[in-house]
Amino acid sequence: xxxxxxxxxxxxxxxxxxxxxxxxxxxxxxxxxxxxxxxxxxxxxxxxxxxxxxxxxxxxxxxxxxxxxxxxxxxxxxxxxxxxxxxxxxxxxxxxxxxxxxxxxxxxxxxxxxxxxxxxxxxxxxxxxxxxxxxxxxxxxxxxxxxxxxxxxxxxxxxxxxxxxxxxxxxxxxxxxxxxxxxxxxxxxxxxxxxxxxxxxxxxxxxxxxxxxxxxxxxxxxxxxxxxxxxxxxxxxxxxxxxxxxxxxxxxxxxxxxxxxxxxxxxxxxxxxxxxxxxxxxxxxxxxxxxxxxxxxxxxxxxxxxxxxxxxxxxxxxxxxxxxxxxxxxxxxxxxxxxxxxxxxxxxxxxxxxxxxxxxxxxxxxxxxxxxxxxxxxxxxxxxxxxxxxxxxxxxxxxxxxxxxxxxxxxxxxxxxxxxxxxxxxxxxxxxxxxxxxxxxxxxxxxxxxxxxxxxxxxxxxxxxx
Length: 466
Description:
Largest sheet: 4 strands, parallel
Strand order of the largest sheet: 4-3-5-6
Number of strands: 10
Oligomer: single chain
């Protein structure tokens, strides 16, 4: 079973994990007060007017910190020691806003001893819950039982999913061959279509059927699929299934008609209003908070390159509906990086990057001036990364559906940045486009907030920095 909220899927195991860990944090505050007062925790009662507001504030802030550190990403596999490290960092991050709230609103503050006990109890509880989750999430009890109809090239796209993390949500219970069709699967991996799809699905306790045949013309068993549908077995097309499981839209499998008739790809006036409001509010707050770091970055550039060296770098990028604008960044390369005027992809260990620039890129501080682009309305906080016109012209010629990424404003951060490493080639551009199209199709206020929060993980762990 899947829950869909604002066009985005909520995975049952992640939802259960979030509820369990929120309960642990909330209960830890009561347990800490009870231990301090040497009382029975049950005697205090969750409805205690003196405690539950304090517990609610702590729970909300710590939970947001856990989300920001990527601890609720279903498609991310973490070793237990990595999860422990992120839990520790999340508690440190949470301590800053908690301290601010307690200073501004003393009635919500815990005593020093209560706070220390709450941290110990909460961290112990979260560690235990996380360990249980990591040992059970890959078990079949949390996986959707999937019957694939097709054994050709399209069906192979499911079997060939390489990332184990992308296979965590489903278990293939069989692949049924198309009548008269060829099979590209290894011997023993396909089932004969010698009975109805409904019978096969019931025999194998399938919860869904994915249609992945190479040619549907005159070969789609509509009656059999309808029989599955009315019996409560979901029927999906291949592109929709892969979108759900991998968080991207496979451009090698879609056609314009799918793009036209599928749900999503809608930008309403209300959505534009909420997105712009979020951009303005968060950008102003970010500009205020980041101003000291921006001054330090400018000073560091001047110290390395000289008093008269330029601090900002302006470069033409493609924005909404193909319009170009000047993106602002702290200069991280030598001044003569492109003296010949030729546009080049950034490379790993690029010799053009200065020492200060390497640090700025690693910490993503070089992107901070783009807050000005957001305030101007040229960019959004969340969206596909803007590319240079020279690259866009070439990529549009070779990559289908590339112009569709320009139907939303480019962003400082985005879905592709969370799910894929830094891109510096046409192959990387294709992979990033598939994630960008997922965002264009499913973007919402909730998805924007999640991406903004989880960008903290990208910065702290240096994912994709170059």
